[in-house]
């Protein structure tokens, strides 16, 4: 039996260049799924594009480290903005968990308002949902809504997180990232998953065309390299030869 391969492009809604890159990687490549930042500057543009591409499954990219929140978060924001200081607060066990739970609910309902349906799954910007204090909140919310959740099994084991009852892929790969993007790197992530005996795998990616927003990102030109690899005909053939079929979180 074939294994399910979910190729999920993060950051849908970040910018028009990001949005167009994800759409191109779905239309002409192997991307099957994306996750939307509902507080992103171009989220309405992303929602509009998705209406002409029903084969692209759309989940929600929970955001606690970028831009403005949708609800009052006085304990987590600085000058009204979210940021990467969330890890310092987590280390100090000072996270405002009630504010985070409320923001998750606000972002979820904003997603439904924008896209007209519930997300296929939840994950998060900078993997904040895998922070030990936050994971139980997001996991319980996903269960209550009946949607799948991205689970990094390695981090879950490291932090002894309770993953019982969560619908997710068997495996999650974040290795297709950085300055050494190549077809060989993508295929190595599949080989690693095959070696672990996983029957479903999500590979995270960030394909994009470079625009002013992406130029200001710490992760810029590799997004172009990802787009080139993910739309190559040889990669699609190699993935199929390894026994994978394209899928989404609806398949797990």
Radius of gyration: 17 Å
Low-confidence stretches: none
Q: Determine the number of helices (DSSP H or I, runs of at least 4 residues).
A: 10
CATH superfamily: Glycoside hydrolase/deacetylase
Mean pLDDT: 97
Can you describe what's shown?
Strands 1, 2, 3, 4, 5, 6, 7 and 8 form an eight-stranded parallel beta sheet that branches. The protein is globular, with a radius of gyration of 17 Å. It is built from ten helices and eight strands. It is an alpha/beta fold and about 250 residues long. The mean pLDDT is about 95. Helix 7 links the parallel strand 6 and strand 7. The protein starts with a strand and ends in a 6-residue tail after the last strand. It has a single domain, classed as Glycoside hydrolase/deacetylase (TIM Barrel), CATH 3.20.20.370.
Characterize this entry briefly.
The chain is an alpha/beta fold. The chain has 10 helices and 8 strands.
